[in-house]
Amino acid sequence: MSISLLQKLQDNLGTLDAKGLRRRRRTADGPCAPRVTVDGRPMLAFCSNDYLGLAAHPQVIAALQEGAARYGAGSGASHLISGHSRAHVLLEERLAAFLSPHLPSARALTFSTGYMANLALLSALGGPDTELFSEAVNHASLIDGARLSRSAVRVYPHGDTAVLAAMLAASTAATKLVVTDSVFSMDGDLAPLPALLQLCEHYGAWLVVDDAHGFGVLGAQGRGALEHFALRSPQLVYMGTLGKAAGVAGAFVAAHESVIETLVQRARPYIYTTAAPPALAHALLASLDIIDGAEGRSRRAHLDALVRRFDASLVLRRWRRLPSATPIQPVIIGENQAALAAAAALDARGLWVPAIRPPTVPRGTARLRVTLSAAHGFDDLARLIEALQTLDNPTPPGAPT
């Protein structure tokens, strides 16, 4: 029987291979940075979510070392037993103050990952008396959180506020949750948050915003999508990650203090897991200093200039770009094997750009997901653009060169 069980797994893996859907890990040596050694080869990477280039920032590294010396390597228990450190307290207070212009009576709660934060948030706020309205292209963590919430789930089309308005008007649920990414991680576009908030305030719903790819990047001070759109409301529930633009690890939820206290009391992924190492929280205080200061503004300005240069300079014939004003710049190839071939051709040129395929994106829209970082230079960008245009417009056999 064990042989037949193993054969079934092997057959399933073979099917993934045949469809060009098998995922494979690659091994990077050294810190997260544009120039990295991958599987023993030097590469120029355009695949990290380290948007501000803080993962290897000397100030953040020094703070992590200081935090380990002060607090040790681990927390030892969950937050509600003995693992809630002074470093966690300071980070949560700092995050709440940072976002207070947009969240009245704000309080923050930290988590080990963004996935965990979304599972905790939706399962704690949802329930049998709740109707949850989920954006069609939300991140997997929001989809799984909705499944765990025990709520009735309605999916509205991507960016379609008219359909959502009709759904909300028809709902008789005691509690309503509208759930959306702010920056969509595979497309790079922005949710219509002002219109969504207006609907939520009209129909008495919470607006849950996953700003994983906006926190630290969007807004003059890096306060994310809420600052970008100048939003403020007690009905906003905000999730931000700390392993992308902040350069370290973890996530947080910021909202009215009653929301956060509800999570402390009811969110199982928070209650029943060991707290993240306090040294990480200590390092994140240094990250927030950078994000909120002059250097953060300078890094965001450079990143924006890279995005604008990429938009203005890349001209494609066979492939197509999705419109995006964010560091996420998708190039749609189409079929899985063609996307894998394009990624392999870039790899041969020393450029690390991942091929994204179903089920992460819809069938027939396999793509290269280019991500830009403030740590990239304009010469790095020019090298990528030249390679993409060459691969998109190969010289026909026998044609003059």
Q: How would you classify the helix and strand content by structural class?
A: alpha/beta
Number of domains: 2
Strand order of the largest sheet: 4-10-9-8-7-5-6
Integer-rounded radius of gyration:
22 Å
CATH C-level category of the largest domain:
Alpha Beta
Helix fraction, binned, reads 40-55%
Question: What's the total number of strands?
Answer: 15
What form results from the Cα inertia axes?
globular
Quick one: biggest sheet?
7 strands, mixed
SSE ordering: HEEEHHHEHEHEHEHEHEEHHHHEEHEEEH
Mean pLDDT: 96
Count of separate DSSP helical elements: 15
What is the CATH homologous superfamily assignment of the largest domain?
Type I PLP-dependent aspartate aminotransferase-like (Major domain)
CATH topology of the largest domain: Aspartate Aminotransferase, domain 2
As a percent range, the share of strand residues is 15-25%
| Uncertain ranges | none
Q: Give the distance, in angstroms, between the N- and C-terminal Cα atoms.
A: 60 Å
Second rung of CATH, namely the architecture of the largest domain: 3-Layer(aba) Sandwich
List the helices and strands and how they pair.
Elements lengths: L1 H17 L9 E2 L5 E4 L2 E5 L12 H14 L7 H5 L2 H14 L6 E6 L2 H12 L4 E6 L4 H9 L3 E5 L4 H10 L4 E7 L11 H11 L2 E5 L14 H4 L7 E6 L9 E6 H10 L1 H4 L6 H15 L1 H20 L6 E2 L6 E7 L1 H13 L2 E2 L2 E2 L9 E6 L6 H15 L9
Parallel strand pairs: 3-13, 5-6, 5-7, 7-8, 8-9
Antiparallel strand pairs: 1-2, 2-3, 4-10, 9-10, 11-12, 12-15, 14-15
Helix pairs in contact: 2-12, 4-12, 5-6, 5-10, 7-8, 12-13, 13-15
